[in-house]
Amino acid sequence: MRQQPNGSARMGDRTSLSAADEFAVVRVQRIENGFVAITILVTVVIMGVPWWVPFAAFLLFDLSAVGYLRNPQIGALVYNLVHNYSAPAILFLFYAVFRANDVSADWLLLVSVSWAFHVAVDRTLGYGLKVRDFQHTHLGIIGKLKGGNR
Q1: Residue 120 and residue 141: Cα distance in Å, rounded?
Q2: Which residues have a Cβ under 8 Å from the Cβ of 114 and sit 6 or more positions away?
């Protein structure tokens, strides 16, 4: 592995980020997810839904962590299926199709935005998609390992 002038390590045609660059990228992702969470909360209030509804639904999405009772691989798979923006986006798409056909499905919109709010808040706090176990995420290490206590 050869060190590049910008501080990154180059291996073949692939470039790895330096630790400082990786930290900056993660910080930007956390900040933008914070803005997503705030935008969702403001939108919910504008819709006339009480502001506390996304907070009340918040823990329901963490039930996906029960997969860890089986083993870390199943836990990470189930957790990652629930903790990304794909499913809330699909629910929102269904809501839009129903709405376009004059079918009331406001509950679908509420589930979608509550779910996306959960993902955004988790990402803002540094809880990313799980890589190997609960502590290793695409946003870095969380929990006890982060402080060097192994």
Answers
A1: 18
A2: 53, 54, 57, 58
For 42, 59, 111, 129, the CA distances from 140, given in Å and listed in that order, are 29, 22, 28, 10
State the Rg of the chain over Cα.
19
The answer to whether 51 touches 113, Cβ cutoff 8 Å, is: no
- Alpha-carbon gap, residue 61 to 84, rounded angstroms: 11
pLDDT digits (tens, 9 = 90+) for 54-109: 999 988 999 988 988 999 889 889 989 999 999 999 999 999 999 999 999 999 99
Q: Are 42 and 31 in contact (CB under 8 A)?
A: no
Looking at the whole model, is its pTM more than 0.90?
no
